[in-house]
Specification:
Length: 452
């Protein structure tokens, strides 16, 4: 479909215009326009200005009037597993038992391209229904899982980073591969998808316990051959997991050192969780300019621990927020920020709404090394954004009229809000999701059931 020459939207707007090195920078760079005009052309932002300034020169009949709504940059989910959508909320286990009992059997279903295709469509609809326009996504070990996801994301022109899981030990036979198979399949996927439109590839060794040194050597070789790919894995999530890594890799100086010695740290390396880091590991993440995905609902649900937001700022480590579905319990970034606040409270850290929205937008973009492309409304940025309905339920409305300013309204949105507050989601300058519309989802050949 050709682009209309310009798209003009009138609403309230909130974004953070520049990167922060400490929390105080965020408020200093926050932009709130009670009545603003956003101009888009060819899927990119041209300007964001106050309505008062723009009014004289625009043709009012061409303006999409969204007054009463708040438009913010699209949310960026820096860690999520699409093949765990159908097992979200699995009872009773912590990480290692949870993987064996629930995760591996469900992921086995993605050998079926039909299943992968249907779940990809469902997954992307969940992202959009929650205002998430970009994500860093785990597939399964099956290349067809990633083909299906990228194909579906390409149709929506979403900026998505994903990869096939690489694992060759300590998992069921039906999900393991040889290092050579892993290398060849990953290489073929990179050649097929990396930098195709808005899609990018992430090398995705599941975590150290399911990786032999030979497999990690293959990952290293791929990173050397394709240095602008991403690296996406888990790190220091659970105490049993950490002890296991130390037993499996006794010659290494702790968990992160396993990745570091294989040259898998660095810019565009994103480590999910990082709950129990040692001092030298924090330092290594800083020195290598690596990133962390903070996943509050997952960390609470699996009883893994509390992420130290304050320490992350002090160490100068890039950080974004991840839902980590299906250990995480929601696709909603609003709910995830609400849980992040509670994680902060348990450690006497006051996570303001302004800071929380930063982590979910520009900060997440920085964690993914995409801050030159997405994360705010600066001129030239890709036009991915969410139109929020600030108050949708009687309780939200009551609380909203009892809020004194935008900061309180934003805070209430991340405390009481969820997918009901997502009025529209726009990707590449086009509306791709609208509240109240339901995508039909058909049944599938596989045991997982989809709603009819
Ligand atoms: N560590 C290794 N695999 C996983 C996974 O699928 N989810 C979480 N939360 N942690 C992991
Ligand atoms: Zn995860």
């Amino acid at each position: 479909m050709p682009y209309a020459s310009e798209t003009l939207l009138r609403a309230s707007f909130f974004d953070i215009t520049a990167l922060a090195t400490q929390p105080d920078d965020i408020l200093a760079n926050a932009r709130y326009l009670e009545d603003g005009l956003l101009t888009l052309r060819e899927g990119k932002v041209v300007t964001l200005e106050s309505w008062e300034i723009a009014e004289g020169r625009v043709d009012v009949t061409q303006v999409i009037d969204l007054r009463g709504k708040l438009i913010v940059p699209g949310f960026i989910d820096t860690h999520i597993h699409y093949p765990q959508t159908e097992m979200i909320g699995a009872f009773g286990e912590q990480l290692l038992e949870w993987l064996n009992q629930y995760t591996f059997p469900v992921e086995s279903q993605y050998h079926c391209p039909n299943h992968a295709e249907q779940m990809s469509a469902f997954f992307l609809q969940q992202l959009l229904a929650n205002g998430t326009t970009s994500a860093l996504v785990f597939g399964t070990v099956h290349p067809q899982s990633v083909d299906a996801l990228f194909s579906a994301a390409e149709k929506l022109d979403m900026r998505l980073i994903a990869g096939k899981v690489m694992m060759d030990r300590n998992a069921p036979d039906y999900l393991t591969e040889t290092p050579e198979e892993s290398y060849q399949q990953t290489k073929a996927l990179i050649e097929r998808w990396h930098h195709r439109g808005r899609l990018s590839y992430a090398l995705t060794p599941r975590f150290a316990p399911t990786s032999s040194p030979e497999l990690l050597e293959k990952v290293r070789q791929l990173r050397e051959a394709f240095p602008d790919t991403w690296l996406h894995t888990h790190l220091s999530e659970n105490q049993q997991e950490i002890a296991w890594v130390k037993a499996l890799f006794p010659e290494h100086d702790g968990y992160l050192d396993v990745y570091h010695q294989h040259q898998l740290t660095g810019k565009r390396s994103v480590f999910a969780h990082c709950l129990h880091l040692e001092d030298r590991e924090w330092q290594c993440l800083h020195d290598t300019d690596s990133s962390i995905a903070f996943c509050p609902t997952s960390n609470l649900f699996l009883g893994s621990g509390l992420f130290n937001i304050k320490r992350c700022w002090q160490q100068g480590v890039r950080m974004g927020v991840g839902t980590d579905v299906g250990a995480g319990t929601t696709f909603s970034m609003l709910q995830t920020l609400g849980e992040a606040y509670k994680v902060g409270q348990l450690q006497q850290y006051k996570l303001s709404a302004c800071e929380a929205f930063y982590h979910a937008t520009l900060g997440g973009a920085h964690a993914l090394d995409l801050d030159d492309k997405i994360g705010n409304f600066n001129a030239g940025k890709e036009a991915d954004f969410v139109v929020l309905d600030p108050a949708v339920s009687p309780l939200q409305k009551l609380r909203s009229v009892n809020s004194k300013d935008i900061w309180e309204r934003l805070f209430v949105m991340m405390t009481l809000g969820d997918d009901r507050n997502i009025y529209q989601t726009w990707v590449s300058g086009r509306p791709v999701w609208q509240q109240g519309t339901h995508q039909p989802v058909e049944g599938c050949c596989q045991p997982s059931k989809l709603p009819g």
